[in-house]
Design brief:
The structure holds two protein chains of two kinds. By secondary structure, chain A is mostly helical. Chain A has 23 helices and two strands. In chain A, strand 1 and strand 2 form a beta hairpin. The longest helix of chain A is centred in the first third of the chain and has 35 residues. Chain B has two domains: 170 residues, Bordetella uptake gene, domain 1 (D-Maltodextrin-Binding Protein, domain 2, 3-Layer(aba) Sandwich), CATH 3.40.190; 109 residues, 3-Layer(aba) Sandwich (D-Maltodextrin-Binding Protein, domain 2), CATH 3.40.190. In chain B, strand 6, helix 7 and strand 7 form a beta-alpha-beta unit. Chains A and B meet through helix 3, strand 1, helix 16 and helix 21 of A and helix 2, helix 3, strand 7, helix 8 and helix 9 of B.
């Protein structure tokens, strides 16, 4: 108990609180600007932390991290351009709501779901970190392969209209992810002898091209139409009754996010897609998903912000960073003499508890700061459309190149933008392309590692462990369900087409 | 509208001044993304180093392709006295033998080696294997799996050399970094891993042997490979500073002196202690000879293990 009180004391210093406010606000803005995401935000702030004490520097970085994951949803909803890849799934329902004039509601749900997911994952982190970490260790390559296959199935759900077009885009994204070094042998693939390509295509330039640049092109080509004006950003929080009605969605999204975040190497973008796929099968309002249904925003935003808390589970319990972002946090801890590892919870209990307190304050700060931040975006988007679009193009390119300082990424972003524009004109959905890009590398390397482990026997994957068997069974169930639903749909359509004819035929 | 124009003009000015000053700035290339293990050491090294040198310096992260993209940028800046690279062992001594790169071991002016940590052969503490002999015996029936932080990395090479030089039967499973590999070790997906003391301590593993000439301080009971009756195997994770070819003798000397003063400073020492990095300074000539020796040795390992033709 003394430790917890001392930890709360550590977290409530004016330096730490100031760091939280600055970090969270900057995070929301950085996350909201297309191209600049969590990693860029943390890179900007990392050098400032060298002179601070441990708690203050972690407060600043956690603020930037959580803020940026939330901030991505603002532009996703307003202009159909996710500020970060983590918020790509928020566009599916967020932007349709904007087009229907429900901006305030969409932003309200996104904000509240982010807060809810963040806090719930903090609670899980505080009470079940060791247990969850132990469970996550059971997720070996084969289990991860099964999980990623399950997540890939959400391509089926989001390619409304034409499954074939969705699959084409998914495969294209998957193909993009195979460019560069082979993850198992290290050999170069699809580089055509060009050295610059051997580092592969990074996710950020592709996402920036696919969403931000293509959106700019689309708006430019339709600039005289009414639909291209950006609606005024407002925020209306859902009331208690509305929250109660969708509580189960919030809880499911948060749990999925918390769990996926606890697995090393997956991350917030994958969590959001998995959660969205789950909502498509389980939400009572699933028929409306993709047409402007708050459940879709909830699924995406509650899960991606739940990752912010649970990504610390493997980091703190085992010293294994869950993603790039927590790896950077671990680096910051090392600078301050805290070595993450199996004994961290025991040796540095006070610091760890103070981190938990900071995480909760950050989520509250995010809720409070959402209004002024959205106000700022409202002001920005009131500028003439040309300036807004110019700004988006500029930040997209800055973001694309700053991830790893490779000039090739500018070319990749520009080419993806043109490709994405052509695809959008042809009615191809772009989200599957990003899903292929996000999940492709994990799908490939987990499959190939799994084959190394099972000595080339694919069929032993199904019986490798209880978890693997369950996940593969779920995939089977999903496929059967989708097929049956598809057939029923088809028969209903045929029946509907016959109906006007049938009365006359019965008379005859 | 006018305010917007003014701010655009101000932005342009900032951009212009930046490029004007940039000529005197020292670029320190770190070939990994910000926040990684090498980056942290480089960022602690940078402020002291630039103070010694009396210049303003900027750490630039140029990541990708097993750290070779950033390394290539240093090599391609021939004659530029204002760029150096803070380099990991793999990019200098392994990658040039593995694939076609725009640089080789002769493409640099070597400045200094900063830190070096010997690698240990280790297994999970939950396993019942206590010695290398037992490990070899148990591997005869069913080969073990060893993890690495990626194909062609030092953990991979050390284990490949060990399987070639001993009766140990083990196969390679690469992961996307030490973290995921440790997760796999904890879940018993792999059984063996070769890595440094940091990993050993952080994850509570059991060391069976050390890839070094002599036993390591703090681990008096861990035998060297030679003591186990095997050929000499020397694998360490080291980092160092290189500059492009074609810079003046005087500049090289300045860099070398600044580097020596940096690694001997109390500030860097206390950092290295926290990060469990062993300071192991080598001057320009010794470092050059060291890299060339390691390059040749690693090339042989890659060939013996069938990883390169």
């Amino acid at each position: 108990m003394d430790v917890i009180l001392a930890a709360i004391n550590d977290a409530f210093t004016w330096q730490a609180l100031l760091a939280i406010v600055i970090g969270t606000w900057a995070g929301i803005i950085i996350g909201g600007l297309p191209g600049l995401g969590s990693v860029v935000g943390l890179t900007i702030f990392l050098p400032f932390t060298f002179g601070m004490d441990v708690i203050t520097s972690m407060a600043l970085l956690i603020g930037v991290y959580c803020g940026s994951v939330y901030g991505g949803s603002i532009t996703a909803i307003l202009i159909n351009t996710p500020g970060t890849p983590q918020s790509a799934a928020t566009t599916f329902d967020g932007y349709p709501m904007t087009q229907q004039g429900r901006v305030d509601e969409a932003l309200g749900w996104a904000t509240f779901a982010s807060f809810f997911g963040g806090v719930l994952s903090c609670v899980l982190l505080i009470f079940c970190a060791p247990q969850l970490a132990k469970f996550a260790v059971n997720f070996g390559s084969i289990e991860v392969f099964a999980l990623v296959c399950l997540a890939m199935l959400c391509i089926v759900g989001i390619s409304r209209g034409s499954l074939l077009k969705g699959l084409v885009c998914g495969m294209m994204g998957f193909f993009f992810s195979t460019v560069g070094s082979d993850p198992i042998t290290g050999a170069d693939r699809f580089t055509f002898g060009t050295y610059a390509l051997s580092s592969g295509l990074d996710l950020i330039p592709v996402v920036v091209g696919a969403f931000a640049l293509s959106e700019v092109f689309v708006r430019f080509s339709a600039r005289d139409e009414e639909a291209t004006t950006i609606p005024e950003a407002r925020l209306r929080f859902p009331n208690l009754r509305e929250i109660g009605r969708r509580l189960i969605e919030l809880v499911r999204g948060s749990f999925i996010g918390s769990f996926v975040g606890a697995l090393p190497g997956t991350g917030a973008a994958a969590a959001a897609f998995i959660s969205y796929a789950a909502a498509q099968k389980l939400s009572p309002r699933r028929a409306n998903l993709g047409k402007g249904e708050p459940d879709g925003i909830i699924a995406s935003e509650s899960s991606n912000n739940a990752v912010t808390g649970s990504a610390f589970i493997p980091t703190l319990a085992l010293g294994i960073p869950g993603d790039v972002v927590t790896a950077m946090m671990m680096g910051a801890m090392v600078i301050h003499g805290i070595t993450p590892g199996v004994r961290l919870m025991v040796d540095q209990a006070q610091t760890v508890y103070a981190l938990f307190v900071v995480l909760i304050i950050v989520n509250v700060a995010m809720l409070v700061l959402s209004k002024p931040s959205i106000g700022l975006f409202r002001y920005l988007f009131k500028l003439p459309l040309g300036f807004v679009m110019g700004g988006i193009v500029m930040f997209s390119f800055i973001g694309a190149v700053s991830v790893r300082g490779n000039p090739l990424d500018l070319v990749v972003a520009a080419l993806t933008g043109i490709l994405a524009y052509v695809l959008r004109r042809g009615g191809y959905p772009l989200a599957p392309l990003v899903i292929g890009m996000v999940l492709g590398p994990e799908l490939e390397s987990s499959l190939r590692r799994g084959l190394l482990i099972s000595r080339g026997d694919f069929f032993s994957f199904f019986t490798h462990s209880g978890i693997a068997t369950t996940l593969f069974a779920l995939i089977g169930l999903f496929l059967v369900w989708t097929t049956v639903a598809g057939v029923l749909d088809w028969r209903a359509k045929i029946a509907a087409r016959r109906e006007p004819v049938s009365p006359s035929s019965s008379r005859a | 509208m006018t305010s917007l124009r003014y701010s655009l003009a101000a932005l342009a000015l900032i951009g212009a001044t930046h490029s004007a000053v940039a000529a005197d700035n020292l670029d320190i290339i770190v070939p990994f993304a910000a926040g990684g293990a090498t980056d942290i050491v480089a960022r602690s090294f940078e402020p002291i180093f630039s103070q010694q040198l009396g210049v303003t310096s900027v750490v630039r992260n140029v990541a990708g392709a097993s750290a070779t993209v950033g390394t290539a940028e240093v090599a391609n800046s021939e004659g530029n006295p204002n760029i150096i690279g803070y380099e990991p062992a793999g990019a200098l001594s392994i990658q040039p033998s593995l694939k076609k790169l725009p640089y080789g071991p002769d493409s640099f002016t070597y400045i200094c080696r900063t830190v070096s940590n010997p690698m240990f052969l280790m297994v999970s503490k939950s396993s019942d294997i206590e010695s290398f002999k037992q490990l070899v015996e148990e591997s005869q029936e069913y080969p073990f799996l060893y993890g690495s932080s990626g194909p062609g990395t030092l953990p991979h090479l050390a284990m490949a050399a060990l399987t070639v030089n001993s009766d140990l039967k083990a196969e390679h499973v690469p992961y996307s970094g030490s973290g995921p590999a440790m997760n796999a070790l904890a879940g018993n997906e792999i059984q063996i891993m070769a890595d440094t003391e940091t990993i050993l301590e952080n994850y509570d593993l059991r060391p069976l042997a050390v890839f070094a000439e002599n036993r390591v301080e703090g681990y008096p009971d861990v035998p060297t490979m030679q003591e186990l009756g095997l050929a000499e195997m020397d694998f360490a994770v080291w980092q160092g500073v290189v500059a492009p070819k074609g810079i003046s003798e005087e500049r090289t000397q300045q860099y070398a002196e600044a580097c020596k003063a940096t690694v001997e400073s109390d500030k860097f020492k206390s950092f290295a202690d926290k990060a469990k990095a062993d300071i192991a300074y080598l001057g320009p000539d010794e470092f050059k000879a060291f890299v060339q020796k390691r390059f040749a040795a690693n090339k042989q390992v890659l060939k013996d293990a069938g990883l390169t033709p």
